[in-house]
Amino acid sequence: MNINATLLGQTIMFILFVWFCMKFVWPPIMQALSERKKQIADGLAAGERGKHELELASKRATENLREAKQRASEIIAQAEKRASQVIEEAKGTAKDESNRILVGAKAEVEQEVFRAKEALRQQVADLAIAGATKILQREVDAQTHADLLLSIRAEL
Asked: Less packed terminus of the chain by CB within 10 Å, N or C?
């Protein structure tokens, strides 16, 4: 066997093998690598988009929380203001009611005082008539008359 013929045969076989690999094996491998590269790039891009969207969502959540806190403080302030208004209205109503009750009580006291005065006048008139009747029933005597006036005075 000749080394040159073997070397020439191996070279031809190697060239055929390289041609076969470049024609039939290399394109599917390159296509698979290209698809894998594209898939990895898409995955990284989606990860970046997700990261960006997460940051945006976090900012929106923070903004919404701040707005909710602000709105809650406004609602609390309005509630406190309304509570003070209700308290002031209740105080005004209570004051009006107390004034009305006081006026009614004063009128009732005045009426009772008037009734008491009238009753006292009636009693004084009755006593005066009773005294006059006693004086007129007896004879007109100065001493008796003075004693009677003293007894009437004692009754009053």
From this structure: N
Distance CA 19, CA 13 (A): 10
Q: Which two tokens stand for residue 6?
A: 């073997």
* H helix or E strand, kind and range, residue 97: helix 26-137
Would you give per-residue pLDDT tens digits along the chain (156 residues)?
567 888 998 999 999 999 999 999 999 999 999 999 999 999 999 999 999 999 999 999 999 999 999 999 999 999 999 999 999 999 999 999 999 999 998 989 999 999 898 888 888 877 877 777 776 666 556 677 677 777 777 776
SS3 68: helix
* pTM summary value: 0.44
Of 82, 59, 81, 83, the closest CA to residue 67 belongs to 59
- Rounded to a whole number of angstroms, the CA Rg of the chain reads 62
